[in-house]
Amino acid sequence: MKEYIVKHIDSNLLKVEGNEMNQIWEKANVTSDFTYPWEEVEAPKTSFRALWDDNYFYFRYDVEDENVLTYVDKDHKMEVVHSDRVEIFIRQDEKLDPYYCLEMDARGRVLDYVTKFYRDYDYEWEWPKSNNLSVKASENKTGYVVEGAISLSSLKELGLFKNNQLEAGLYRGYCMNLPVGDGEADLRWISWVDPKSENPDFHIPSSFGKLKFEK
């Protein structure tokens, strides 16, 4: 299973802002190993980095995108599915029963939901509130940035943080065209792990890797 090492920092050093990079992020490992698993062309660059302290798991995506597309109608969280976005899925185990999904766009909107294999979505579900999840984002000259913090207590409560690691999938939805009328957005799919599936699909066990938390 593909692995990423999450480095530890002292508490209260990192504030989620979602814009210019705090120098503390220089301590993090950076992976830009994101590809189009289902296409024979090079994907636009996506970089991911993560840190943790005794209370929170922090993550940051830096996305290169010449034309950031964000669908806004009623500003509902479901509009994220029609927009450029980055994603993190976190599972309890390979049975995917359940797993938890965060899809985040360049406005900092979060589509949070719980699901079970196969594609049994509950979009009414929300990440446990009260300072357990913070996401901020912004556009820039080269694309957009998404930063987030998830409390370790909520990850433990959901049965996700075990043995100082998370089993997670890291993805990106690259929007080519916004929906017209009642149609859907035109999206291409980018992933950290190649699921080796015939068709584009993140909602399968083989799309997950492992985030290992080290001090």
CATH fold name, please? Immunoglobulin-like
Helix content: under 10%
By DSSP, the count of extended strands is 13
Work out the count of structural domains.
1
The number of distinct helices, counting runs of at least 4 residues, comes to: 1
Order of secondary-structure elements: EEEEEEEEEEHEEE
Give the helices and strands, then pairings.
Blueprint: E1 3-8, E2 30-31, E3 46-52, E4 56-64, E5 85-91, E6 99-105, E7 110-116, E8 120-122, E9 133-139, E10 143-151, H1 152-157, E11 165-177, E12 186-191, E13 209-214
Parallel strand pairs: 1-3, 1-13
Antiparallel strand pairs: 2-3, 3-4, 4-10, 5-6, 5-11, 6-7, 7-8, 9-10, 11-12, 11-13
Written overview of the protein:
The chain is built from one helix and 13 strands. With 215 residues, the protein is mostly beta strands. Strands 1, 2, 3, 4, 5, 6, 7, 8, 9, 10, 11, 12 and 13 form a 13-stranded mixed β-sheet that branches. Strand 7 and strand 8 (120-122) form a beta hairpin. It has one helix at 152-157, and strands spanning 3-8, 30-31, 46-52, 56-64, 85-91, 99-105, 110-116, 120-122, 133-139, 143-151, 165-177, 186-191, 209-214. It starts with a strand and ends with a strand.
